[in-house]
Amino acid sequence: MSAVARERLARWIAAYRPDPGLPDELVGADGFHRGAWPGFLDALARLDESDIMARFVSAERHIRDAGISYRIYGDQREHAWPLGSLPLVVEAAEWRSLARGIEQRAELMEAILADCYGPGRLAAEGLLPAAVVAGSPEFLRPLHGVAPPGGRYLKLYAADIGRGPDGRWQVLADRTQAPSGLGFALENRMVLARTFPDLLETLHVERLPGFFQALREGLSLGAERSEPRICLLTSGPFSSTYVEQAALARYLGLMLVQGEDLVMQGGRLHVRTIAGLKRADALWRRIDADYLDPLELNPVSRLGVPGVLEALRNGSLVMANMPGSGLVESGALSPYLPGLARAVLGQDLILESPRAWWCGDPAGLAHVRANLDALTLRPAATPQRGAGRDAILGPAALAAEREDVVRALDDRPFDYVGQEPSPLSTTPSWERGPDGLRLVPRPFALRVFAARTASGWQVMPGGFCRIAERPGLDPTEMRLGIRSADVWVLSDQPVTTPTLLAQRIARPRRIAGQLPSRAADELFWFGRYTERTEAVIRLVLAHLRNTGAALATDVAGEPSQATSARIRGLLEEWGAVHDADLPTAALAQEALVGRERHGSARAHVTAARRNAAALRPRLSGEAWRVLADLTDLLSLDETRAFAESQLLGRAERALSHVSALAGLTHENMNRGPGWHFVELGRRLERGINTCTFAVAFAGDGAGAEDLGTMLALCDAQIAYGARYLQGAALAPVRDMVLLDPHNPRSVAFQVEAITRHLEALPALSADGIPEAHRRLAAGICGGLASAEAEALDSDAMARLEVELERLAEAVAARYFAGGPDALRPEKLAGLA
């Protein structure tokens, strides 16, 4: 190491002082640097500090461009993923010991679940109080006696861990319900692999693809078919962990579905797709079990599938994890785990939890009452959600709080667990000081994952780490002030650099996967909202540029008030502005960036991004970057008043981004059903908007300036000027924007494209008779082909707009989940 690097490292750690009594990852109890950190920091110090910061700026830009985000529970806003600037590093020997403890604990949880939903021997022999099982809301009685297809209750197990006072790892909470964080851990690694590829290779960091390959194979163990269809069930884009669920579906090649995408038929679970019902063989659920089946579990649920438990009973569906597995997350189970491990596994627990006492046990209640001021009190009947979030009473509680808890213990003691306080240990994190970067200790929590495979449990060589940005903040859940970190397990020897996924397909395949009806709906509206964004921007540009006067060669002087009034009136009608009489700049600003206006360009691009969020596995990274840039362009500070020239420039750039997004969709999306639905949405919306423009600016009383504006809105000025030497005239303009099949912005061009896209989509039956939406499209196409511009009038153009709206509704009725064709009997033919 050079002298400069040594000086840099010395400056980083000069003021590093762990809190007394708290274990730390960098500094051991003897005051010396420990574990894998010295080697990691030596390697990091060889990089220039400005280079390190530049790399993390690049990482943050990638996170933004890729749309990696999360939601805080109860907050509908998306927050950029807060990736920390340092990984958590663990040496290989320590990780091997930790992995053995995780495997043991996973096997113990599996055994407890098998007994609680089966013979009940543990309760009968007094090893586990029956009230801990039967009194838990996670014990699902409809599943008692139901053997899990594939023979395993758990396909994925996770544990939140931290270091105890003695420096050894301990389990803070078991995660068996629907463990989250795996996708975020994957995203963290993919970002840091781009940021520090040299360090990963130099330090021999263990790679993750082997674990994910094993996880995917394990999800299908027990499926009836040799090539099972695996679905990942999500609660939807407003889930706080939806982004990671989409990342996992994309990475593992799973079908991302919501409850409304699934239906039971013939005792088996099927996915509603645009080609009919397709069988689902395995389901990785990411919703709580209680919401899974409204017929037998929570009747108010809108997230699950009515009757899905029947598929578990008859063995036609493999599920990860089995409903009811959340039972072993209960804090009331913790005091009995050491004894259960000895009785069930014949082993002592390798990874223990902080000592705990269930207050439903008289001895436990007596201990808690006698030591209430020294314990942390937690709910017993609900699963633990972390080391601090669910605490009811801590050692530093106020007297009034203590009195309330004492009364609660007298009333319902079995609802509580007393636990020894377990302050979180610390790990190094960056902090910017007056003389540059420095390392400071910060609390962290680590989630480790284990996947069940045909040969046993396999622990992921990494994990999901959360670090508090300041002391005293609990990092056991993602929220403001908490950052995530990659976890590097440093191998003793060089590691191979595998591809993202091992080859699992024996032969090439060109047939696109099945498209769920809901995904088709989202894609369709993504296309419509991007087109609406463009329409509003073009109206604003027409308003700011006075484009109509440019082609109105027979009109002199200032633009007519009538044309301006039509533009303003249309913006108000669309909900882009609240008052058509606003000053020019104010009207343009509100139409472009008005947060409270449902019809503003900003509102439409926000809606497009919301639809895109449900389609993350289907959109390219370039499309996400353009969408992010477009969102930024239309996110001006509304409290400031911008000049017309500023708004004009921003509108022009936004229009370029919309065009780029359309180009990326056209060039980068595979020509499968998803692309057809994006194009259908765009073409239908463009046709409808063009009809609206034509009624306003090419109606029966249109003047030359109106017609010039019409051509500008359809981006047809150059084509018109090349075709006609005279100024704008009514019949030629109508022909160009409505009937010309060679003009890519005419209504006729849109309808011809719509017809081709519909023909490429699957039909419900094979009788050769066109379905209703195809007949409607063919009728509109034929009417336009035979129409003459001289015969068109305002009423005819308005009727054409209505017909296009009817066609959009017909497409929705045929293909989308809420349509009346969702369960047509023909769909049951060929349930592959």
UniProtKB/TrEMBL annotation:
Pfam families: Alpha-E, CP_ATPgrasp_2. Coiled coil: none annotated. Residues 87-468 form the Circularly permuted ATP-grasp type domain. Residues 515-816 form the DUF403 domain. InterPro entries: ATP-dep_Glu-Cys_Ligase-2 (IPR051680), CP_ATPgrasp_2 (IPR025841), DUF403 (IPR007296). This is DUF403 domain-containing protein. It comes from Methylobacterium jeotgali.
